Every structure is written in C-alpha cells, then in structure tokens.
Amino acid sequence: MPSQREIRLNAFDMNCVGHQSPGLWAHPRDRSWQYKDLEYWVDLAKLLERGKFDGLFIADVLGIYDVYNGSGDAALRQAAQVPVNDPLALVTPMALMTEHLGFGLTASLSFEHPYPFARRLSTLDHLTRGRVGWNIVTSYLESGARNIGQQAQKDHDARYDYADEYLEVVYKLLEGSWEEGAVLRDRERRIFSDPSKIHPIDHRGTFFSVPGIHLCEPSPQRTPVLYQAGASSRGKQFAAAHAECVFVAPPSKALLKKTVADIRRRAEEAGRDPRSILIFSKLTTILGETDREAQAKWQEYKQYVSYEGALALISGWTGIDFAQYQPDQVLKYLHTNAIQSAVEAFSTADPNRQWTVQGLADWVGIGGFGPLLVGSPQTVADEIQAWVEETDVDGFNLAYALTHETFTDVVELLVPELQKRGVYKKEYQPGTLREKLFGAGPRLEAPHPGAGYRRGAAVGAGRGEKVA
C-alpha cells in the first residue's frame, strides 16, 4: 500500500542561469535568463506559496567550474552556474510578498568569518519573521579558494573539522550571547537593553578567536533551520550532529534507501531522534495532463541539453576532467577532493548499472544528479509515493527543466493529485519555518548541540559544554 506520510517539497533554484539543466536556458519558454530581475524571484515565491511548498532552497557556489579542459570556457559558453549572483539579497523581497514560504539559503562557511555571517543570519531571520534556513556548505571549487587568497581548497575531511568550530562560534553568538529578556524597550526609564544579560562569547579556538557579543538581538528562531548537503561519510557525520534537514541526491532508490538509513543511524548514535531530521532527495519532474503529453515534453526539452555544459558541471562536482574521456568510456571510482559522494554514486555504489561518460551527461542534462520522473500527475504521484515508501525519505528538493514552467506544472498538476491522496498539506502550519516543519517550538531544542549554548540550557545539551 502506498505511503500515507506527508510528503515535503522544496523548490531548488540558484541565482544564475544554467542551474541543473545545462543548455535549457535557450528554450523559448525558459525564464532563467531573468535571474537578475526581482520579478523573476517574486513570481516564483508567489507560485511556490500557492503550491504550499515548504520552501525555496537556493543553491550557491563561489567560484567557476573550470576543471573541464582545465578552463572555465565551457561553463561560460553554456552558462553552467555562471554568471551567478549572491543568493542572500533575494530572500527579503520574496519574504515581503509571501506569508508562509521558507527560504533555505546556501552560504559557504569556507569563505566568510562567522562573526559578520551570524549578523547576516539574524538580520534575515528578523526580516522574514523566522522563515529562513541556512544550508551549511564547506565548498568544493578550487577556483573559489584561490580567489580569496587560499593556495588550494582544504582537504575534504579537514573542511568539516573547520566547520565544527565554525558552528560552535555561530551557536555561541546566536544562542548564548543575549539572554531572553535582555531587550527591555523601556521608554520610561530610557533603557533599551539590559547589559547584564548580554554576554561576550570569549571564544578562543583552533581557527577562530571571537571575544565579543553578538551584534543582533535574538531573532524569532535565533539559529535558522539548519540544512546540510554533504553526503560523504564525513559529511553525514557532520549532518548527524548538526542538521535539521539533510539534502541528498542519489540517482536510484537502492542508493537513497542506503543513504537515508545511514543518516538516521548516525543521528541516533549522536544522541538525537533519527526522526528529528528531515531528509530531502533531489528530484526533477516533467509533467503533462497525460503520460503521452509528458513524454512529448521530455523529448522537446532534450533537444536543448548541452553535452559540454553537463560535463563542465560534472567535472566541477567530481574534480575529474571528463574532457579526457571518450563518450563511451565506463566510469571507474576515483578519489577526489571535491564531492566524493558524486563520484561514488555513479561508479561503485550502485552495482546494477554501468555508467558511460555520455550516459552520465545525458542523465545530468535535465535536473542534475537526481532522478527524473516523467508522466501524468497520477503516474508521477505513484512513483513519488513509492520512493517515500521504499526509501524512508521525507520529501524532495525539486529541480527544474524549465523555470518557471516545471514549478507551475507541479503546482497545478502534481500538488492537487498529492492532496487528493492525503499525502500533501492543504494549509500551512502557523509560525516560523522550524515550527512549520517540525510542529515544535521556534528555537533549537535539546539534544541538538546548538541548544546547549543557550543561557540556562541543561548540561550536556551542546557538545558537553554549558554556558553558565
């Protein structure tokens, strides 16, 4: 029997042209070339809220895909995630024009000090009234590292050691610096804040020294909802400790089931309820009123896929220059310093399929690494329910073939079908993004490590440390 669990949906976009479907920007109905216009983003936010999406998950990279042929030329020719604008500025106008939609902001902790970044998070959480999340990434592009003065990207696992301390600083600032009740707004006594309830964090660590107070008063969520998208072994260990939502992108049910089980097991080992983490898998849908109509749309889209653009993206994601391989060459597992799970997923982890370079480019050409479902609302809904039932995943980050067409089809065709089946919400829950997603309070709660840095938190709630 199909799963009756509520299925979660995020839209997956990026402040660029060719996000996950290289070449399709040239399709006459695609709007991604308008990425630099506010109307594009406001229209998208309104559409997603009409479809009761949990959020808009905004990807980002700081750097260019320059592994393919040792150059960024292919990425530039095909607009493969370049040009790319900053995602942070998009959130406020979209929040102003919506009431419930959440915003998952991707921001790399490799390229910005936690002290000013914590202020940015608090500011966004205030302006959205608690509807912001942070997708924690460590970054993987060597070009990004070089352009901020690093000789090279840190080793893959070492980036997560750095990330652990980065999160510690952020927790101390957002959770521990200002007590509840520190802001008085007492006009009669002319006292806005009580200095005795505002504390320097006095952090001295391996990577950071942050002596002072957080500059912002507590926001609705204090710490935004924490997303994490690392799927390597070290990445999953980090996610199990910190993430509230995890974003993965396996290409098959078998691999997704294994990934979900591994994340939940690690969360339990970290002392957390494995159900306290929502796991979203990447998915792309091509919908029509009938299966035949959807298949025809897919064939139309495929005419615009860029082989060169797909390989530029894959080379950047994996650290392997795919220009050195013939299209019919079969992939072998190679250890790289980029996204290790991406290499593993298409070489050794799914033993039922052999992947050639051409096959990989065709797969990635529409929607990136994740699977593609094509069909009528009934066909796609059946398959989505089967993925939930067979893999234990909580929901999906939906990439697009064409924007906003793909999302419009989901809102107008798929969402009503899922609602009819009782597996998709008809109304939003009130409150902050955290309250909407988890039905709990607006703030991090024990045993999440961040909750332990709050003044008055129970000992043991945060990495063995208590803020007195």
In words, what does this structure look like?
With 468 residues, this protein is α/β, with parallel strands linked by helices. The chain has a single domain, classed as Luciferase-like domain (TIM Barrel, Alpha-Beta Barrel), CATH 3.20.20. The chain is 37% helix and 13% strand. The chain has an eight-stranded parallel barrel, surrounded by eight helices. Strands 5-6 form a two-stranded antiparallel ribbon. Helix 1 crosses helix 3. It is globular. 51% of the residues are buried. The C terminus is likely disordered. Its EC number is 1.-.-.-. InterPro entries: Diverse_substr_monoxygenases, Luciferase-like_dom, Luciferase-like_sf, NTA_MOA. It is an enzyme of class 1 (oxidoreductase).
Number of helices: 15
Helix content, binned percent:
25-40%
Quote the distance from N terminus to C terminus.
52 Å
Low-confidence stretches: 458-468
Average pLDDT, rounded to a whole number, is: 90
Query: Which architecture does the CATH hierarchy give at level 2?
Result: Alpha-Beta Barrel
Radius of gyration: 22 Å
The neighbouring-strand order within the major sheet is: 1-2-3-4-9-10-11-13
Sketch the major β-sheet. Answer: 8 strands, parallel, barrel
What CATH calls the topology is TIM Barrel
Shape: globular
Query: What is the strand tally?
Result: 13
Share of β-strand residues: 5-15%
Structural class: alpha/beta
Keywords: Flavoprotein, FMN, Monooxygenase, Oxidoreductase
Binding site for FMN: 60, 106, 156, 160, 232
Protein name: 5,10-methylene tetrahydromethanopterin reductase
Family: Belongs to the NtaA/SnaA/DszA monooxygenase family.
